[in-house]
Design a protein that fits this description.
single chain; 503 residues; alpha/beta; Beta-Lactamase; Rossmann fold; Helicase, Ruva Protein, domain 3; 6-stranded antiparallel beta sheet; flat
Length: 503
């Protein structure tokens, strides 16, 4: 009865995990019963798996997998009845999955029952003994199984929840992998993830797509990503900037022309739609085409048929049309500048690209991407963007969106003579509060004094570094008097000593 008391005491006093509780119960059995080998199995799906043990190596424990009804352990799990094997060497049903035993060894296995369900088993190896002793040990194990059943049920639930969490995590990772974020597009914000999802939803279909967004948001990149993820990816992707084509040439560019069809047409020429046969035509700034061209474009969308300029011969093509615009097409329809029927033909699957102001969390990611890109292009070794420069990038309103950010980083790399892009390497539009009209200022939350102080500090520190800690030389470099620079150094609490050995 001392064993029962010790096991009960271990359960009542235990405040740690259920796994460590089971291990403590085995420790009691080892101490009080001279137990050398024992296992706890838990039922999962249609099998019993060893979850805790004593006297087993990690490899032996790993082999402890029993289908319900398989071997002695599996039979106990199936019937819910205890089994005693007086001598395992004479029992053909004993599988010995966890290793051979030396000498005569008995085996006792009892069920763990919770809410009338077998949830596992407890088994021990016992030195060869008479029937009475083995039955006493069986009864003892059954009592232990009963008083630990609640804790073992908790352990099973914990394991099932953990496995469910792991499975869910793997499922989510698989979904993210299946998302296949386009390599050509940089950004991890929620708005861009929604765009990626739409790209891969529409890519396999032949549906017409209308990409909306401000200039410089990357509409052509999205169009190319749709093409590259589609069955047409091995066919041509032809991009046309409608806003850049003169009105008298746009039809010729889109549909081609025959020799002699107009002055200067010295030979027949295929248009963009003909060149893109089997692939994708991307019509950027679709809102800028004339009403006359809109009529012909509508026919292509509806019938996939057109004629070259100067010809009456119909040409049939198999193209997917992706259009894009930064214009308010709804407003254009209201004033008669854009055909309503064309609008609805184009607007089958709209994708809205956020402005850079709406995806602030991607600014540093994009800046680092452009830093790497133009470092390679211009063979530079600029390793980072300074904190004041990052602050300016983050607080600017970016009317030109990602394109403007790219141009800004490219310019900064060209003008920088340091290993970092500093605030003064950025263009004046980012350095002048009046011109930037940042969101912070618009919201009334900008700390102008703090921004100026950070900028001043960076200028002074860079000058001190370049003059090897010579304050007078730094003042001359900055066009300041010695009195002013010493005042600034005190106010900004700049430690000039650390720069005296810097060259």
């Amino acid at each position: 009865m001392d064993i029962i008391y010790n096991v009960s005491h271990a359960i009542l006093a235990h405040k740690k995990s259920v796994t460590s509780l089971i291990n403590e119960v085995f420790d009691v059995l080892r101490r009080d019963m001279n137990l050398q080998r024992g296992t706890l199995t838990l039922k999962r799906d249609n099998a019993l798996i060893i979850e805790a043990s004593i006297g087993l190596s990690a490899d032996e424990k790993k082999r402890g997998y029993y289908k319900i009804g398989e071997g002695i352990t599996g039979r106990v799990g199936e019937t819910g009845k205890s089994i005693i094997i007086p001598d395992i060497s004479k029992e053909p049903a004993f599988l010995g999955k966890t290793g051979k035993r030396l000498g005569k060894t008995a085996f006792i296995c009892v069920p763990v029952i919770h809410d009338n369900e077998v949830i596992g088993t407890i088994s021990i190896d016992s030195p060869f003994a008479n029937e009475t002793e083995l039955n006493d040990k069986r009864k003892l194990l059954e009592i232990i199984a009963n008083i630990t059943a609640d804790g073992i049920a908790v352990l099973r639930n914990e394991i099932e929840e953990r496995e469910a969490l792991i499975a869910e995590n793997q499922r989510l990772k698989a979904e993210l992998n299946n998302l296949n974020k386009p390599d050509s597009i940089v950004g991890n914000c929620n708005r861009m993830r929604m765009v990626y999802s739409l790209i891969f939803q529409v890519a396999p279909s032949p549906a017409t797509v209308l990409i909306r967004g401000e200039s410089g948001t990357g509409k052509e990149l999205v169009a190319k990503a749709i093409h590259d993820a589609s069955p047409r990816k091995s066919k041509p992707f032809i991009a046309v900037n409608c806003a850049a084509l003169p009105e008298n040439l746009i039809e010729s560019e889109l549909f081609g022309h025959e020799k002699g069809s107009f002055t200067g047409a010295n030979y027949a020429r295929k248009g963009r739609f003909e060149l893109a046969d089997g692939g994708t035509v991307f019509l950027d700034e679709i809102g800028d085409i004339s009403l006359a061209t809109q009529v012909k474009l509508l026919r292509i969308i509806q019938e996939k048929v057109f004629e070259r300029v100067g010809s009456n011969t119909p040409i049939k093509v198999n193209v997917r049309i992706i259009a894009a615009t930064s214009r308010n097409l709804e407003e254009y329809m209201g004033v008669g500048k854009f055909r309503e029927d064309l609008y609805y033909r184009l607007n089958v699957f709209p994708i809205y690209l956020p402005s850079l102001r709406e995806r602030k969390t991607d600014i540093i990611l994009l800046a680092d991407y452009f830093l790497e890109k133009y470092n390679k292009l211009y063979i530079k070794n600029i390793r980072r963007i300074s904190s004041p420069a990052i602050n300016m990038l983050m607080s600017y309103h970016w009317p030109g969106n990602v394109r403007e950010l790219e141009n800004t980083i490219e310019r900064a790399i060209l003008v920088s003579n340091d290993e970092a892009i500093n605030a003064y390497d950025l263009p004046p539009s980012l350095q002048t509060a009046k011109e930037t009209r940042t969101n912070l200022i618009e919201e009334g939350t900008a700390d102008f004094t703090q921004m100026i102080a950070a900028f001043e500090e960076e200028l002074i520190v860079e000058a001190i570094k370049e003059t090897n800690g010579n304050i007078a030389a730094a003042a001359r470099k900055l066009g300041l008097t010695p009195r002013i620079i010493h005042y600034k150094i005190r106010m900004l609490k700049i430690d000039t000593e650390q720069y005296k050995s810097v060259k």
